[in-house]
Amino acid sequence: MNATPAQHPPTVVKLGGSCLADLDGGWWDDLAGHGQERPLVLVHGWSKPLKQLSPRYSEPSAVLRDRYGNQSRWTTPEVIEDIKAVSAELGREVLKRLEQRGITARRLLGSDGLVRAGAGERWWWKDKQLVELENLVGPITGVDPAPLTGLRPKDACLVTPLARNEAGQEVNTDADRAAAAIAGATGATDLILVTDVAHLLIDGEPVSEITAEAAAEFRDKGATGGMRKKLRAAGEALDRGVERVVIGSAPVTDLLAARTGTVITRT
After folding, report:
1. pTM value?
2. Comparing C-alpha atoms, which of 260, 190, 178, 195 is closest to residue 40?
3. CB 175 within 8 A of CB 134
């Protein structure tokens, strides 16, 4: 997954599924303004839209925990289809907002030749027993940036972070880590993880800047839930050549200027 030199390296922005509907017109104006100067690759989550589709996605049984303690949405072929349905609706709204602001936008399924996945874990805790289950998830093993070549300033691509495994199955992946892999593969200098919190908090205090090493230490000792995944994704992006990762809820230009949010760098 080495970066491919790009004539116009993009800014990669992960749009958190929990906050996407709350981004106002000013936020989109700001993103489009940035997109006048840089191509945009947007990777979206779907957690909140999926829960709104059906109450079963909010039930504890919708989430599995593997033998190592990692959590994953229990993904069946039906869940894949629901993810694609809510993503298509979400995509239409995002593309509309961008096109209204002068950005030429298109949508791409990661499973359509962009993102590759390895074999997923097969042993999961269910009813207090470790059982073998088919769960259509998998770790990202590669990104082919070819579908994203040709992006120029005023262009954007919205990626739905599904992947294709070696057996040809469409599988669910973690959107933050997908964004990190895509950022590395496209030669992006910046990865922005837009979420519903303003900063990384350590001991209750907001952190404006942190090194990858310190972030990894906190990830393994103190971070929980979604922030733990974001810090893992940040480390993976920096390892793949991205210069900095910013986590926050503000407009993209404010995050890039370090006026708010948390900036994570290699050193």
Report:
1. 0.94
2. 190
3. no
Burial 124-141 (b: 16+ CB within 10 A, else e): beeeeeeeebebbbbbbe
Burial of 240 (0-12, 13-18, 19+ CB in 10 A): buried
Q: Which two tokens stand for residue 236?
A: 């993976």
Per-residue pLDDT of 120-157, as tens digits, reads 999 999 888 999 999 999 999 999 999 998 999 999 99
CA distance 115 to 144: 7
Burial (0-12, 13-18, 19+ Cβ within 10 Å), 169: middle
- Please state, as a whole number, how many other Cβ atoms lie within 10 Å of the Cβ of residue 218: 19
Question: CA geometry: angle at 228 spanning 81 and 107, to 5°?
Answer: 35
Cα 69–14–136 angle (5° rounding)? 45
Q: Which two tokens stand for residue 123?
A: 């042993």
Identify the three-state secondary structure at position 49: helix
- List beta partners, residue 71: 65
Please calculate the CA angle 22-28-34 and round it to the nearest 5 degrees.
140
3-state secondary structure of 132: strand
CA separation for the pair 238, 68 (Å, rounded):
25
With beta carbons less than 8 A apart as the criterion, state whether 73 and 172 touch. Answer: yes
**Interacting residues of 116 by C-beta distance below 8 A, sequence separation 6+:** 140, 141, 142, 143, 144, 163, 164, 165, 166
